[in-house]
Amino acid sequence: MDRPAELVPLHYVSLGARGPEDVVPDPHGRVLTGVADGRILRVHHLGDPRTARTEVLARTGGRPLGLELLPDGDLVVCDAERGLLRVDTDNGTVRVLADSVAGERLRFCSNAVALPDGTLYFTVSSRRHPLDRWIGDIVENTGTGRLLRLPPEGGEPEVLLEGLRFANGLAAAADGSFLVLAETGACRLVRYRLTGPRAGHAEPFADLPGMPDNLWREGPGGPVWVALASPRVPPLDLLHRASPAVRRAAARAAVRLPYRPSGTAGVVAVDDEGRVVHHLTRRRSGFRMVTSVCTTGDHLVLGSLGEPGVAVCARPAAR
């Protein structure tokens, strides 16, 4: 991997609410996000902090995480408490698409991607730890993450993959032949093939210099942007080799202690061969725990699980 370039901050836009965990742009250059109090917000004029403003589109009644904007303008929302939702961005109506899998409550729904035929693929990060104890799953390394599929006609979600180490962001290949999935606990991306002789198989796609969170594809010909919530933590890699009992004890301690995110902010972008085309970092960053990234105009927009706003950074030159 090439030496990282500098992630250049331009300004910060406060949202008046904490935790814009995912950020996605709409065709008009506005950015949609969900915050900790359950609201879905649309942010206007992010390029100028003096004129930036937010409007409330909906209230999910839960905790929205990953977002996927559909061609008709509706929004698919992964809600950590309510499951997979569809939000009408015109009138704020919230409809539950799925809230259980095989008789088990669907919780910690994390990220989703929609294919042109209307199929939805989405992830569950953990079946053992809820969102407010996410650090426990990372420390314990439970491997209870899932990839699921909801057909266009709806119904019961189908489990495609299990045993994932904190399944997180999703993006589709430009040609629709595979999905890219972020495995946060393994610091890597996974390719899940949708077509061809290996359809239904998963394989490593890219090793990363940190823990990936949400993914976002920059148009059909653009790269997949990856938010790095944290750099790699070597002691954590060692702990993951310990016995399950040791990891469980460490997880119990971790959820009781205050978590302070790393001061290094980072994002990468990869192409459909798994090659890194951008790697941007900033040490001693005031904006911590980057959980999402998207582009709009000449800017990169960063979201975070913990910050009360979004960061606007310079977009790197094309490579």
Automatic annotation (TrEMBL):
Signal peptide: none annotated. The keyword Phosphoprotein applies. Transmembrane segments: none annotated. The keyword Phosphoprotein applies. InterPro entries: 6-blade_b-propeller_TolB-like, Strictosidine_synth_cons-reg. Residues 117-195 form the Strictosidine synthase conserved region domain. Keywords: Glycoprotein, Phosphoprotein. SUPFAM superfamilies: Calcium-dependent phosphotriesterase. Belongs to the strictosidine synthase family. This is SMP-30/gluconolactonase/LRE family protein.
